[in-house]
Amino acid sequence: MATSGLLRRSVFRGFSSLKTWFRCSAVQFSSAQSGFFPPAEGIMLPVGAFHNRVAFITGGGTGLGRAMTATLSQLGAQCVIASRKLDVLQQTAEEISSQTGNKVHVVQCDVRDPQAVSRCVDQLESLTGLPDVIINNAAGNFVCPSERLSPNAWKSITDIVLNGTAFVTLELGKRLIQSQKGASFLAITTIYAESGSGFVAPSASAKAGVEALYKSLAAEWGRYGHRFNIIQPGPIRTKGAFSRLDPTGSFEKAMIDRIPVGRLGKPVEIANLAAYLSSDFASWMSGAIIRFDGGEYVSMAGEFNDLRRVTPEQWKVMEAMIRSTKGS
């Protein structure tokens, strides 16, 4: 009996200490393993993989769109980038063209307006002809409690993300079908298009709609030579996204803590994946959703995954606690 009581007191003290240890050990988890997974900065596909190909990228002037444009241009593509901000597009096009030696064209376009999209595609055709690669990357997002959302706030996001993607995809798709030309379509969504997420309800809803659209068209338009794939990125640091989603910088560490790879993604990494999915090397891929998040989604999904923070010493205490419950 004395031994049993001593064990219970030891376990109780261990449990109290365990809660403190558990919280403290979270700090240790996030960075050490990132050394096993350094980002590769180079281009993955062979030079010339997109020779004589035209790529159209919405939101191509900044962030992930700029990174994808740079990679495709390095691989030989003639790129056309579109967004509302013509000055930003022109600067990006000049910088990438000077680096790669391949012309990058610009087309001003508000994807929320179907008439503007039609005029944009007219201009695209006159510049390069219809594209072989279409990347729907234009997006908008901000964090906000859902009870504070106005109808205009909701519409400002869904018009860009869902309607804009639909208008661009359908306008180009119809013209490609009429011309009997095949193409690869790629959409950039997010991991919470699948899981949902508080405080970004308009974006989560709109990007889930984009995924449904692309899966539907993958089934329907394969007969016309069209492939549709989706990338769900986790947190990748870009100036535009982080200024709206983490304006104080206080959430970045929490993001890294929950990513098993132990770091944020790099724009060049998603650019390489986008290039692969848009290339002939992925010609048998259509209707695919690629989760590209360093393991963040599965890390958050499992209810016991936080046990990875427990140290060997803490496990000894926990095992004693578990053994003490036998027969109870």
UniProtKB/TrEMBL annotation:
SUPFAM superfamilies: NAD(P)-binding Rossmann-fold domains. InterPro entries: NAD(P)-bd_dom_sf, SDR_fam. Its EC number is 1.3.1.124. One of its GO terms (cellular component) is mitochondrion. It comes from the Eukaryota. One of its GO terms (biological process) is fatty acid beta-oxidation. Coiled coil: none annotated. Belongs to the short-chain dehydrogenases/reductases (SDR) family. 2,4-dienoyl-CoA reductase subfamily. Auxiliary enzyme of beta-oxidation. It participates in the metabolism of unsaturated fatty enoyl-CoA esters having double bonds in both even- and odd-numbered positions in mitochondria. Catalyzes the NADP-dependent reduction of 2,4-dienoyl-CoA to yield trans-3-enoyl-CoA. This is 2,4-dienoyl-CoA reductase [(3E)-enoyl-CoA-producing], mitochondrial. It comes from Betta splendens (Siamese fighting fish). The gene is decr1.
